[in-house]
């Protein structure tokens, strides 16, 4: 894996070679990564792995024709062959009136921000093994846990560099760490399983292994002895673990590509009230140590915090340059990409802002409803917004959390869900997409 400076130079050199060989425009992306992980089960070592790799991708333009090619061989000879093949592919590609680099006048000219994404660490396998064992031991010590699916700990480091023929070149380095545990409670046909995990950019920011293992165990034990649900329309409370999926459906529906293809249920929603008053959906690529932070987007454009939804109103699409041209708007600085293919649009650190009521207050206000802690399957139509998913969780009975429920189905339409949902006040920033508990006041619930 190259250093950030050498990665940036390698990408810039490939772009320069493509221009000298006849490309009208070009960009290149370098991705290098190193990772290692250890997994254990029942205190026995199950797996130790370590990998390191690097790839570079080149995109060239000849007029409105373009082609993308990638390789893991970074030698000078391989770079030359890449350029020749990419140019030959572009000559045969169909014309695309929306193809091209990001507008030159919009590219980032300042030095990219330092987001503190790299702690410089590289723990040895024994350190990771000890953390995995601690998580599993903590989980297995909880009464009711009868078996283990295992625990793991991992670390990684990555380099991302991009260079364009209109003058942008930059690179970033980031580290990442994770710890997880999964256990079984009960026995025979009554067995239930659950898990817990945490990831962070800095090793020091990881939750304790004991805390992760304890959460996994408590969740598994709580799911024992599920009961059936009386079908009907009722309030559904989405635990933060699954409430983030609602934001995922929202982002897919406002992507520039989906809008340009007219394949989104939110085609006419821009500038309208999509959520209730007071609700904000915030995107922050510049969050220090954020899991999805980035100092520039995948086309070299500047990035910054923004409210995708402000006071319930949808304020923007997410558009990289190609879809922005189709929609007649400026690119929004949300381009994401790897070494293969053209950029797409996606958020960075996405957050549904908290509401004013506590989770406990929401629960106490529900006479009969469901708290969902797990979602199963897909069951979401991005064109119509129809929503139907398998779920598991707990009954809410007369304002209190009741017995577990499993194999249920919850259904509605995402437009209705967005318009009526209420976020609780329990937001915690822990992932790349974060949400508090969310209450949807009326959904159809039935046994699966």
Automatic annotation (TrEMBL):
GO cellular component: cytosol
Name the UniProt record assigns to this protein: TldD/PmbA family protein
Domain called Metalloprotease TldD/E N-terminal: residue spans: 26-90
Record GO biological process: proteolysis
PANTHER family from the UniProt entry: METALLOPROTEASE PMBA
Family in the record: Belongs to the peptidase U62 family.
Residue ranges constituting the Metalloprotease TldD/E C-terminal domain according to the UniProt record: 231-446
Annotated InterPro entries: Metalloprtase-TldD/E_C, Metalloprtase-TldD/E_cen_dom, Metalloprtase-TldD/E_N, PmbA, TldD/PmbA_N, TldD/PmbA_sf
Annotated Metalloprotease TldD/E central domain residues: 120-224
Pfam families according to UniProt: PmbA_TldD_1st (PF01523), PmbA_TldD_2nd (PF19290), PmbA_TldD_3rd (PF19289)
Alphabetical list of Gene3D superfamilies matching this protein: PmbA/TldD superfamily
SUPFAM superfamilies: Putative modulator of DNA gyrase, PmbA/TldD
